[in-house]
Design brief:
Distance between the termini: 58 Å
Strand content: 15-25%
Strand order of the largest sheet: 11-10-12-1-13
Number of helices: 13
Order of helices and strands: HHEHEHEEHEHEHEHEHEHEHEEHEH
Bound molecules: iron/sulfur cluster
Structural class: alpha/beta
Radius of gyration: 23 Å
Helix content: 25-40%
Length: 346
């Protein structure tokens, strides 16, 4: 087993806090080890996308305009830090509309909701602010258009994800969910049936191309969205982590365990042959991962704030001197408009 190159410390020492190993070195009368700088390279782009920024801003502005509490159905975005921050300001997160008192301001999360949830909220006269990402709404609308053309709709996505449940529940006829090529092969539909597909936004072009190719092989009359309809943020973060994997020995993906796009970033790092770990913040960093590592790459899922990346860098700094730089990746300038009633609030 190789020892850590960046600080020349044996693994048992890396597992100790700096004060612990310095104290021990002093007590043993040994000279301090030669400490080399560890390189930390940040992916570009990383972290928050425009849909997440908009969703958080909707809750913050609603709290400002209407005062707490503001009720949010489901985690506004999949990140505990973000949720706790908003809770501290007066947001209340619930899984079901029945938990929301009559008349309380209600926010739908960035993942979108089924039509039945919208109808329930309307039946209860709840004042709703819809934080569904405009790119998710675009998928809903695309799916409705395909169904209106008389096509059977297939959704490529992960079962149980709230965005998938919302999309399936927005389409006014049954939708078939497929998660992989095997499920495509098992579809029991005539090969010339009019078919259309849409995809979960947190899957990229790369994620879906095998499934789409299988669908196109199986069905002769099939249509799907233009490539430009894929979420720009998902694609950009995945391309950035592939670039990152070319120059680092280890990848740390900052994000929540239930964040689909963060998990995918970790998987891509692993596929590219770089040991990759998903961590919520610096407290989950395991010094043992740094054995033999000179350059650490960091990226973050679309729902992870930059402050958590800073926290991971701070955790690395506790283990030795670090030199932080960022890759020269794509700069994103996309912003989504707020709902009219909140855009006017200052
Ligand atoms: S990842 Fe894409 S679809 Fe999801 S919230 Fe962000 S911009 Fe919208």
């Amino acid at each position: 087993m190789r020892e850590a190159k960046w600080c020349n410390l044996p693994a048992r020492v890396l597992r100790e806090s700096p004060p612990a190993y310095l104290a021990r070195i002093t007590s043993e009368g040994r000279r301090a080890p030669v400490v080399r700088r560890m390189k930390v390279i940040l992916a570009q782009p990383r972290g928050f996308c425009a849909g997440v920024v908009r969703a958080i801003e909707i809750v913050e502005r609603a709290l400002e305009k209407y005062g707490p509490p503001v009720y949010v159905r489901h985690e506004i975005v999949h990140n505990k830090h973000v949720v706790e921050n908003l809770e501290a300001k007066g947001a209340r997160f619930v899984e079901d509309l029945s938990e929301i008192p009559a008349g309380a301001v209600t926010v739908f999360s960035a993942h979108g909701v089924a039509k039945s949830v919208e109808d329930d909220a309307a039946a209860r006269d709840l004042p709703v602010l819809n934080a569904t990402c405009p790119l998710v709404t675009k998928v809903h609308n695309q799916g409705k258009r395909y169904v209106a053309q008389g096509r059977k709709l297939i959704l490529i996505g992960h079962a149980g994800h709230p965005e998938v449940e919302g999309t399936m529940g927005q389409i006014p006829s049954p939708v078939i969910l497929v998660q992989n090529e095997r499920e495509v092969e098992a579809l029991d539909l005539p090969s010339d049936a009019p078919i259309a597909y849409v995809t979960q936004t947190t899957l990229s072009v790369d994620d879906t191309k095998g499934i789409i190719a299988a669908l196109e092989r199986k069905f002769s009359n099939i249509v799907g969205p233009e490539i430009r309809d894929i979420c720009y943020a998902t694609q950009n973060r995945q391309s950035a982590v592939r670039e990152l994997s070319k120059v680092v020995d280890l990848i740390l993906v900052v994000g929540a365990a239930n964040s689909s796009n963060s998990n995918r970033l970790r998987e891509i790092g692993t596929e590219e042959g770089v040991p990759s770990y998903l961590i919520a913040d610096g407290s989950e960093l395991d010094p043992a991962w740094l054995k033999g590592v000179e350059t650490v790459g960091i990226t973050a899922g679309a729902s992870a704030p930059e402050v958590l990346i800073d926290d991971v860098i701070a955790a690395l700094r506790k283990l030795g001197p670090t030199e932080v730089s960022a890759l020269a990746g794509r700069q994103e300038k996309i912003e989504f408009r707020l709902p009219a009633e909140l855009a006017r609030a200052s």
